[in-house]
Amino acid sequence: MTAPLIGQIEIDRYLRTGKIEQVICGGENYDGSRPCHYEWVKSLYDQCRKYNVTYNFIETGTIFIKDRKRYRIPNKRVQSQQAQRSGLNFKGKEIEFILKDENGSVIPKEELYLPHYHPVACEECANRLTCNGCSDCGKCKSQI
User: Fold this and answer.
1) What's the rounded mean pLDDT across residues 31-49?
2) Distance of alpha carbon 114 from its chain centroid, rounded?
3) What angle do CA 15, 17, 23 make, to 5 degrees?
4) For the CA atoms of the chain, what is the radius of gyration?
5) Dist. CA 4–CA 112, nearest whole Å
6) How many contiguous H segments (helices) and E segments (strands) does the chain have?
7) Which end of the chain, N or C, is less packed with Cβ atoms under 10 Å?
8) Mean pLDDT, to the nearest integer, of 108-115?
9) Which residues lie closer than 8 Å to 38 by C-beta, 6 or more apart?
10) Element of type H or E holding 63
11) DSSP result, 7-47
């Protein structure tokens, strides 16, 4: 988890080991937050793609800088939409989970939970790569 991303990070040597299965990135939020730069986000994206590791850019943060232009984005939903629109999300190799029930028996894949997503509210959400799906709580109806 590289959030809040407040500087350039080089993780190439760690990704090379194959022990990192996904990287989640996001800017810092709220008043007084430090800026997140597009170049930092893109650099992490490139490093993850190189090693086929899932990279999820979940939000820009309140202050986002791209092409020397400073954007103030206080709304977290808009931050997530902008992150999704950036094209800097990457689905790498599948993570293989071996889940067991309370008796220690392996749960067959066909019995595992399959996430589903709201057809409108989840469409532009940047969290989709690492999200467990919609809980059908109904909160998004007032936001659509």
Assistant:
1) 97
2) 19
3) 30
4) 17
5) 32
6) 3, 5
7) C
8) 86
9) 64, 65, 66, 67, 86
10) strand 63-66
11) S----HHHHTTT---EEEEE---STTPPPEEHHHHHHHHHH
